[in-house]
Amino acid sequence: MGSGNTKEKKHLVIVGGSFAGVNLIMKLKDEFKITLIDKKDYFEWICGLPQSYIGNKDYFDKKATADFHQMVEVDKVFGNNVTFLQGMLSELVNENLIKVKKTKGVKRDQIEGIQEEEIHFDFLALCTGGIYRMNEDADSAKLIFSKKERQTMLNSYRENIEKASSVLVVGGGATGVETVGELLMNHGNKKRVAIITNADSLLAGYPNNAGRIAEAHFAKKDVKVYKKTRYDPAKKLEEDYDYVISCVGLYFHSEFLNKNFQSFKNERGQIYVNKYYQVTNINPCELEKNEHVPNEKILNNIFCYGDAALTRMNEAKNVPAIREGSYVVAHNIKQLEKESPKLKEMPYAVNMISAVYYDKWSGSLTTNKCSFFNCCIFNNKKAFEGFYFCLMKNKACGKCNWSNYNCQLNYMGCCLSLMCCGCSNREQKKQRREELKQIFGEEK
Question: Domain 11-130+250-335: what homologous superfamily?
Answer without folding.
Answer: FAD/NAD(P)-binding domain (3.50.50.60)
